[in-house]
Amino acid sequence: MPTRDRTRDDLLDALLSTARALVAVAARSLADLDIEVTLPQFRALTVLAYRGPQRGSDIATELAVNPSTGTRMVDRLVRKGLVHRERSADNRREVRLSLTPAGRDLVREVTRRRRAQLRRLIGAMPVATYPSVTEALREVSAAAGESPEHQWWLGWSDGRPPAEPGQARSSASRPRSSRSADPQAAALS
């Protein structure tokens, strides 16, 4: 096998191992909560935390699920008191979803737990590897269209907390997705 292919396969194997480790961290961060939330439900909450109020179809698209699956997931999150539905003042047929205070608190707590677990993992690594691992992970995140941590956290990229249910947030203050049809543009954002 040519060296380039072997190097690519080694990278793929390393990413798959890392993905398994991170899924385990994500699952442990949701364990033993006062409220039961699945990983897909938590992903929906993080989408709302980052992007602010969304339509149910937007959530389904982001999670790559059928609209009916997305609707059932949102129904469960509403029943758990984590998501609020509100009709648009401009278009009564449009329903926007947003996090409730309990939903925001849950995202904060789970993120705190993840950070603690990741801090332990990082502590087991040689400090000399930090810069190269950091750069590699930023490249992977950019290729995936993910925003840096400091930009997505609860939609506060503009320094202001997201609007409460029932309050509008101007599009100028709403965080924009880093996803782009152009992968190079996404990597540069």
Distance between the termini: 35 Å
Number of helices: 8
Helix percent band? 55-70%
Please identify which CATH superfamily we are dealing with. Winged helix-like DNA-binding domain superfamily/Winged helix DNA-binding domain
Please outline what is shown here.
The chain is 58% helix and 6% strand.
List its salient traits.
mainly alpha, 8 helices, 3-stranded antiparallel β-sheet, Arc Repressor Mutant, subunit A, 189 residues, disordered C terminus
What can you see in these coordinates?
With 189 residues, this protein is mostly helical. It has one domain: Arc Repressor Mutant, subunit A (Orthogonal Bundle), CATH 1.10.10.10. It has helices spanning 3-30, 39-51, 56-63, 67-79, 101-123, 130-143, 149-152, 183-188; strands at 54-55, 83-87, 95-99. The chain has a 3-stranded antiparallel beta sheet. Helix 3 (56-63) packs across helix 4. It is globular and about 60 Å long. The protein starts with a helix and ends with a helix.
How is the topology of this model organized?
Layout: H1 3-30, H2 39-51, E1 54-55, H3 56-63, H4 67-79, E2 83-87, E3 95-99, H5 101-123, H6 130-143, H7 149-152, H8 183-188
Antiparallel strand pairs: 1-3, 2-3
